Amino acid sequence: MAPFLVAAAAMFAVMYSTQAILPELGREFDVTPSQAGLTISVVIGALAVGAWFWGPLSDRIGRRASLVLASGAIVLPTVLVAFAPSFPVLLGLRVLQGLCMPGLITVGVPYVTEAYAPQLGARAMGYYMTALVAGGLIGRVGVALLTAVTSWRLALGLLALLPLASVLLMRRGLPPEQPGLRRTTRLSLPDAARVLRSRELLAATIAGSLLFFAFQGAFSYIGFRLEREPFSLSDGAKTRKALSLRRAHGQLPDSVARRRPASLTRRSNPAYP
Predict the structure, then answer these.
(1) CA distances from 56 to 34, 36, 125, 202, 217 (A)
(2) Residue 230 preceded by cis peptide, ω within 30
(3) Among the residues of the chain, which ranges form H helices?
(4) Helix axes 108-115, 2-15, angle to 10 degrees
(5) What is the mean pLDDT of residues 165-174?
(6) If pLDDT is split at 50, 70 and 90, which confidence band does 143 have?
(7) Domain residue ranges of the chain, discontinuous segments joined by +
(8) Which of 52, 88, 118, 254 has its CA 20 to 30 A from that of 81?
(9) If pLDDT is split at 50, 70 and 90, which confidence band does 86 have?
(10) What value does the mean pLDDT of the chain take?
(11) Tell me, which fold does domain 2-173+187-261 have in CATH?
(12) Which of 237, 19, 40 is nearest to 138 (CA)?
């Protein structure tokens, strides 16, 4: 499973690579904080759009092929980001990166279920989530620290080595898919309507979206605040502060999960005794 986890971490590192250096990008291209934040927003939007393409494609060519293809496709735009001559070009390259990401991030969920869950159980998805978190830290902390000692262009360009290495690892290390493995069926309009009528699913989607956007907003713009008075922090210090915020963010759901009522667990998991 290690090659797949490396690829997942690489993809998330690329996704959040500009988040910690938004003030630097704002100065470089003379754009406002809200405009600089678009380097994150366009990736998330492109990822959502690309998922509609990569899902059916993975059904056709296979999950394994989709993972390798997506990791290979994202290498070129990641290299070109380092040479972006203008802010619109940078945004366009970030859109291309986002369109490549669902081939691993979205397809990765059914792949883990099909390839590793039978042997590892729930731990397989836990390993996948851990790899995504690690990749996010690399994209934020690693890029910010490297930018502080070199330049943002070099820091973002070097990230291309991660998906490139993951392509080589996955081609050698990912297990072949089982022949005749059942693929997802085509979604019909009645199926879509039934999904949209599910109150539980809609509530979970809305709650998750609100938390996600609050999380993204805090991480994207806290750097602009920390570099002003009375903080006046350097890039490295801002990164350490943001990292401490992420630790606090992770501790809350963990403490809530430990106190989760047994009745709630039984209702959400029919297999619970």
Answers:
(1) 34, 33, 22, 23, 31
(2) yes
(3) 2-15, 22-29, 33-36, 38-61, 63-73, 75-81, 87-100, 108-115, 117-120, 122-137, 143-149, 152-158, 161-173, 189-196, 199-226, 235-258, 262-268
(4) 170
(5) 90
(6) very high
(7) 2-173+187-261
(8) 52
(9) very high
(10) 80
(11) Growth Hormone; Chain: A; (1.20.1250)
(12) 19
| Separation of alpha carbons 273 and 270, rounded Å | 8
Burial of 91 by CB count in 10 Å (0-12 exposed, 13-18 middle, 19+ buried)? Answer: middle
From the CA atom positions of the chain, what is the Rg in Å? 20
C-alpha pair distances (Å), 265 with each of 103, 122, 257, 268: 32, 15, 10, 5
Mean per-residue pLDDT, 212-231: 73
Distance between CA atoms of 193 and 189, rounded to whole angstroms?
A: 6
With CA atoms as reference, report the closest residue to 50 among 3, 92, 99.
Answer: 99
Q: Whose structure tokens read 């959502």?
A: 48
Cβ atoms of 95 and 43 within 8 Å: the answer is yes
Q: In terms of pLDDT, which residue wins out, 184 or 111?
A: 111
Is the CB of residue 96 less than 8 Å from the CB of residue 40? no
Q: For 227-242, how does the pLDDT look when each residue is reduced to its tens digit (9 = 90+)? A: 777 766 665 555 555 5
Distance CA 136, CA 154 (A): 18
Q: In this structure, what token pair is assigned to residue 147?
A: 């930018």
Alpha-carbon distance of 178 to 6, in angstroms, equals 22
The pair phi, psi for residue 233, each rounded to 5°, is: -90, 150
